[in-house]
UniProtKB/TrEMBL annotation:
Keyword entries, A-Z: ATP-binding, Cytoplasm, ER-Golgi transport, Hydrolase, Magnesium, Metal-binding, Nucleotide-binding, Protein transport, Transport
Residue ranges of every copy of the AAA+ ATPase domain listed in the record: 238-385, 505-633
One function term, GO molecular function aspect: ATP hydrolysis activity
Family indicated by similarity: Belongs to the AAA ATPase family.
PANTHER family: VESICLE-FUSING ATPASE, VESICULAR-FUSION PROTEIN NSF
Cell compartments where the protein resides: Cytoplasm
Protein name per Swiss-Prot or TrEMBL: Vesicle-fusing ATPase
GO biological process: Golgi to plasma membrane protein transport; intra-Golgi vesicle-mediated transport; SNARE complex disassembly
Pfam family, one: AAA_lid_3
Primary localization class, coarse: cytoplasm
Length: 698
């Protein structure tokens, strides 16, 4: 149909029908008679004939003109609406926000939502309603504006409802009403209660669409503890806060950011902890008060009918450290904590807020913030298991699969099994790295100006293998015989016993022996062959100029990370260096010693978790098992020479027969490096001389 000119509704009575009006001549062109459905700007209205409307005009009320962003005299396309099969189905449920047309003229009166729903359906039956469409209805002398926020339809031939953009109102349509934001209206009755139960979550959200995977159990805990009290109001108080904690990269920020997308509430306020602080005295406390000001104002006017306000604190440990620990005389940090505590659950508490804190250091948070009534729901976001890793891989490769850029030889199940101990962020990085290898095949220096063809791009399994490949582990040790087979067999038995036992969750083993005997190499080899997914060694940086408190905190962090995995191995290498031990004095760090003794004896926190602690040193009393790594005797040295490819090992046997003591494996390797020639021969004279210089041969 051609463009028509917009005009006002014929009178106030027509304006309250939610219909568009045409001249008799224009209306007859659309249909044989009666009401006709027309579409304008994506919205469907019922068109009726009225002789007071000029030909070529479409009469709309002020709400319709605002909805379509047109003014009187403007032109707009008017088309006959032909519903699809899905749109022919009646609306099963529609959610409306209720407000006054002119809010300044309205009062904070109570309205029975059930009675209003009945009157609304009786007046507007058989009319189409579209999401975000406002409808004006007169109620007891006041003009109300009801704006559709969501609706569900039951398609023909189906039994279940699903979300839709448009649907027809009918006698069976269920209306759920709630006051609009900042509206003084107070709704009462069953329709409001039902809406409160069902409308806390949006109907179209899904974990996969939000990019969240591997956190099924964590979300189950959050729903059960934080949201159940809002869905089923069995108590006058609801949960007002939660704390998400865990290692970096596991999805804490992603969860908090996406929670707002699945809740029907205000847009979440995301605050980075340091942003609250200020150089001006009292400004930090005012910044905290501003975060809660909107929720307080709405709660005063609407009470329990107010919308849910979500406030998210990222890195909350930066502003909520334990009080009394600040070195500054001003105590600025303490006053910020006090202000936040009083706002979350003070004398005037709020039921319309949900505060979410995120931190990597739960131990630094003030205890008062974690008590019941404040951030009492504490959820640890740990490393994903194999099923979770598969979900995350599926999310990050979804576009590749959709555009057919992922090769059929890539198995997400195999990748999930091979990415043990990967966090969600690391899996995302793995996919990006594999994609970059695929880009590298198609884009080179020569063809970068020509441009690569997208249809040639294919991410293959070798690309993921190259992304997974890191520095090759030095897992090979020389099979020199002697006590080595016995040590390896004993360790294998211990590892298998720890893995299979239902009673043993912690096993600590110490390797003691002379310097250079191979204790560290044996510990690393057994950790790699154990196939435990979490393997970590204490960093060398702990031994270089780090003060005692920082060293103890890093050791505790290593064990905390190990407790998050089901099977973990921790290697404590050179314990003397960790303890700052000196024989003369003697001198050692008691702070580090007590930390180590506590951590070594503490069983895993995770249910079913197993922890194996391997150490090369002499804190023997703290360990369950003591394995001595002995130096090599003459027969063992000969076997080691054979494995190293020495071609004249037999010529060296008389020299080895005169050894007074055993030879540590590290010293043997050093001596051979000094005495070996290019053809893999060892000069006997040079070999004897280097043994003497090393203090092995008298």
């Amino acid at each position: 149909m051609p463009q028509m000119r917009v005009s006002n509704s014929p009178n106030q009575e027509c304006a309250l029908t939610n219909c568009a009006f045409l001249s008799d001549a224009d209306h007859s062109l659309l249909g044989p008679g009666g009401d006709v459905y027309v579409e304008m700007g994506g919205y469907v209205l019922t068109a009726r004939a009225d002789r007071r409307v000029e030909p070529g005009c479409v009469a709309l009320n002020s709400i319709h003109r605002g909805m379509l962003s047109v003014s009187n005299g403007a032109s707009i396309a008017v088309d006959v609406f032909s519903p699809s099969a899905a749109e022919k189905a009646g609306a099963a449920m529609v959610v409306f926000e209720v407000d006054y047309v002119l809010r300044q003229r309205g009062s904070g009166r109570e309205i029975d939502a059930g009675e209003l729903s009945k009157a609304f359906l009786a007046r507007f039956a058989l009319q189409y309603v579209t999401v975000n469409q406002p409808v004006v209805a007169e109620w007891q002398g006041d003009n109300l504006k009801l704006t559709a926020t969501s609706l569900e339809v039951i398609p023909l031939g189906q039994d279940t409802a699903k979300g839709a953009r448009r649907g027809m109102l009918g006698p069976q349509t269920q209306l759920q009403l709630r006051p609009a934001a900042q509206s003084p209206i107070k709704l009462t009755g069953a329709a409001v209660e039902e809406a409160a139960k069902t409308n806390i979550f949006r109907s179209d959200w899904s974990f996969e669409a939000m990019g969240i995977g591997g956190l099924d159990q964590e979300f189950s805990d959050i729903f059960r503890r934080a949201f159940a009290s809002r869905i089923f109001p069995v108590s006058p108080r609801v949960w007002t806060g939660m704390m998400l904690h865990g290692p970096p990269g596991t999805g804490k920020t992603l969860i908090a950011r996406q929670i707002g997308k699945m809740l029907n509430g205000k847009e979440p306020k995301v605050v980075n902890g340091p942003e609250v602080l200020s150089k001006f005295v009292g400004q930090a406390e005012e910044n905290v008060r501003k975060l809660f000001a909107e929720a307080e104002a709405e709660y005063e006017s609407r009470g329990d009918d107010s919308d849910l306000h979500i406030i998210i604190f990222d890195e909350i440990d930066s502003i909520c450290k334990q009080r009394g620990m600040q070195r500054s005389d001003a105590g600025v940090g303490d006053t910020v904590v006090n202000q936040l505590l009083s706002k979350i659950d003070g004398v005037h508490s709020l039921n319309n807020i949900l505060v979410i804190g995120m931190t990597n250091r739960l131990d630094m948070i003030d205890a008062a913030l974690l008590r019941p009534g404040r951030l009492e729901v504490q959820v640890e976001i740990s490393l994903p298991d194999e099923h979770g890793r598969h979900q995350i891989l599926s999310i990050h490769t979804a576009k590749m699969r959709e555009n057919k850029y992922l090769s059929p030889d890539v198995s997400l199940e195999e990748l999930a099994a091979e990415t043990k101990n990967f966090s969600g962020a690391e899996i995302e990085g793995l996919v990006r790295s594999a994609t970059s290898w695929a880009f590298g095949r198609e884009v080179t220096v020569e063809n970068v100006k020509k441009g690569a063809k997208a249809e040639n791009l294919l991410v293959t399994r070798p690309d993921f293998d190259r992304a997974l490949a890191g520095p090759p582990p030095c897992s090979r040790i020389l099979e020199y015989g002697g006590s080595l087979p016995r040590l390896k067999e004993t360790m294998s038995v211990l590892i298998q016993q720890l893995r299979a036992s239902s009673r043993t969750s912690l096993l600590s083993v110490v390797f003691e022996g002379a310097a250079g005997a191979g204790k560290t190499a044996l510990a690393a080899h057994m950790a790699l062959t154990s196939t435990f997914p979490f393997r970590v060694a204490t960093p060398c940086a702990l031994r270089l100029g780090v003060h005692e408190a920082a060293k103890a905190a890093q050791i505790k962090s290593v064990f905390d990370d190990a407790h998050r995995s089901e099977l973990s191995v921790v290697i404590l290498d050179d314990l003397e260096r960790l303890l700052d031990y000196a024989r003369i004095g003697p001198r050692f760090s008691n702070v580090v010693l007590q930390t180590l003794l506590t951590c070594i004896k503490q069983p895993p926190k995770k249910k079913g978790g197993k922890l194996l602690v391997l150490e090369s040193l002499e804190l023997l009393d703290a360990f369950n098992v003591k394995l001595s790594v002995e130096p090599l005797d003459a027969p063992s040295v000969l076997r080691a020479l054979g494995q190293l490819g020495v071609t004249n090992a037999a010529e060296l046997q008389p020299i080895l027969g005169s050894l007074a003591t055993g030879v540590p494996i590290k010293k043997l390797l050093l001596v051979l490096e000094m005495a070996m020639t290019a053809d893999r021969r060892v000069d006997p004279a040079r070999f004897t001389e280097t043994l003497q210089h090393a203090g092995i041969l008298g």
